Amino acid sequence: MNYNKKAVSIPDQVAKLKSRGLSIPDEPKAASNLSNISYYRLRAYTYPFQDNNDPNHPFTSPVSFDDIISLYVFDRQFRLFVLDAIEKIEISMRTQVIYHWAMNHGAHWHLARNLFRNPVQFAKDFNRMQQEVDRSTETFIDHYKTKYTNPPDPPCWMSLEVSSFGLLSLLFRNLKLGAEKKAVTKHYGLNDVSILENWMHSFSNIRNICAHHGRLWNRRLTAHIKLPTNPVNPFIQNKHILPYKIYAALCCMKYVLDIISPGNTFKERLKELMNKCPLAQEREMGFPADWRQEKFWQ
């Protein structure tokens, strides 16, 4: 099947939205918004309010263009909030992994194939790490390459510092179970290594969504969150939540932040942000109706 849709002018975009039932009281303002936020990007925010089985995509609930822009702005604020939290978590997890293996296996442990479970996966991750190191413009990488010849690869505290969170999560998952992996898991108040592996993978996926300005508000996450069954510290009591919605991940983020950043304001900032959530969309993000009553969030 050939794709034959043509580009649509901004005035025609406004007209199309109106013809589909979207209320647009201020058309010049809507046109201005569409000249800075693409129609296709906003489609992700109008989608839940339309009949998408109908080729004309009519709106099925009363909603205005301003409502859609408010939802778009909220999602942007929400992404920045989540990205700020993940930054702290990523830096902590990177530090823990580097430290525990370096103390027991030296500065270049990340080059030791025997420490990893799957040699094929190790080779793929190692090649990716070299690519990320080679792309780096950090002064400390250039200094190492200029001054040292053996080994040619920088030590773990340099190489992993410039590696992505996604790669770090892959490396951690592939590392053999030993004292180091148990120590890192214990640091985050968990008893099950597979839970930490899952959280690193999920957080890195969410981080990429945020960093690339993707929709997060009602997204169905591909990396489902696993909830711990016996966490060391207090956790949510209501575990009948959707593992592919962002609320589940937020609970796990708060759990980690309470350990690595005591006195953090994550829960206060989340509540304040969710109080501004337009169009009663908390449920679409996986939030239970009574989530604020959970002791975990109080």
Molecular structure report:
The protein is mostly helical and about 300 residues long. It has one domain. The mean pLDDT is about 95. The protein starts with 9 loop residues before the first helix and ends in a 24-residue tail after the last helix. The relative contact order is 0.10. The protein has helices at about 10-20, 25-35, 40-45, 65-105, 120-135, 140-145, 155-160, 165-175, 180-185, 195-210, 245-260, 265-275.
What is the CA-CA span between the terminal residues?
A: 54 Å
Q: Please state the average pLDDT score.
A: 96
Task: Assign a percent range to the helix content.
Answer: 40-55%
**Approximate shape:** globular
Q: Helix and strand succession?
A: HHHHHHHHHHHH
In total, the number of strands is 0
What are the low-pLDDT stretches, counting only 5+ consecutive residues below 50? Answer: none
Radius of gyration, whole Å: 23 Å
> Into which percentage range does the β-strand content fall?
under 5%
What structural category arises from helix and sheet content? Answer: mainly alpha
Count of the separate structural domains = 1
Largest sheet: none
**How many H/I helices?**
12
